[in-house]
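re: ur question from yesterday

yeah so i grabbed the chain u mentioned. its 141 aa long if i counted rite. heres the sequnce exactly as i have it in my notes:
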Amino acid sequence: MGRIARMAGGTVASAVDALAARARRAGRGTTGNDPGGGRWQVVTVDRTPDEVRPDGRWPEPLRRLGDAVQVRVRPAPGCRGTELAARPRPGRVPPGLAAHLVGDDPGAPVRAALRQAKQLAETGEVLRADRPAMDRAGPPG
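ran it thru and got these structure tokens back, copy pasting raw so excuse formatting
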């Protein structure tokens, strides 16, 4: 094999390695240490693990997803609350995930449930945006 062919072969091999590493970082690849095969979605909640899981039960938004998601809780680094993480289980479809078939984001229901669980733990309610001014009762203008 000529010198140029050897150089090109090395360049292609390093490019393939770089693409594989990039796919793993993006969560598209799985490793042997990741039997679930899905990407973890994580939020940091400014509460203790006992406050995030009162009575040992998951917050209601995560319970709605049922056994279609895997959930874990652990102390956040630097004593900054609790990390609440969830990911879809392989072979199970969380409610709302069927939208993926029409091109929507398959992780959206998991992220929404985590966001709502964080709000419930920190404020006691799921926060909602105000209605637009045009929809509110009151004097016009």
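noticed a couple things. Residues 41 and 48 are 19 Å apart (CA to CA). also Residues 38-127 form one domain.
anyway ttyl
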